Amino acid sequence: MRIFKHLIEHHREGHGHRRFMRGEGHDHHRHFGRGGRVARFLEHGDLRLLVLHLIGEAPRHGYELIKAVEDLTGGAYAPSPGVIYPTLTMLEELGQAEAAAEGTKKLYSITDAGRAALAESKPVLDTILARLAGSTGGREHAVPVLRAMENVKTALRLKLGGRAASAESMRRIADALDELARKIEDF
User: Fold this and answer.
1) What is the CATH number that goes with domain 37-137?
2) Which residues face 102 on adjacent strands?
């Protein structure tokens, strides 16, 4: 019941659904799922080193790198294209990576300078990889829950995004979500 009580108090304090719909208020959701807990494990420069490591294993496209990072974190974090591609551009500018055009995509490979930088940073890379491996412990059990959460979010977006729902419909949705929160708290 702690979560349910927290939500009620949070709502009463003026942090109602309208503020969250506009993207205001506290960002509690950032502590979970994509970009949450694992994101804080990646300090400044860690992603650059991690990407260099991954293209050192095998040449990859940008989206393959996103998936590889997501796999390393057990699905807890996937960098956005807006983070990956500037990182790849920086690695190219540093001479540590090179891109070969494959149709409309680019295949990124490590250069000799990149291998040297990677070798020099091996202790740091090992620390990053150990942190990421430790942060994913038991996450594979959470995959069905994460999938179900995404299903609920999608259903709500579809219901609330298109046409204006009736007040009765909104009340029933809120009641169902409140009941679900109570049940989850009891587990």
Assistant:
1) 1.10.10.10
2) 105
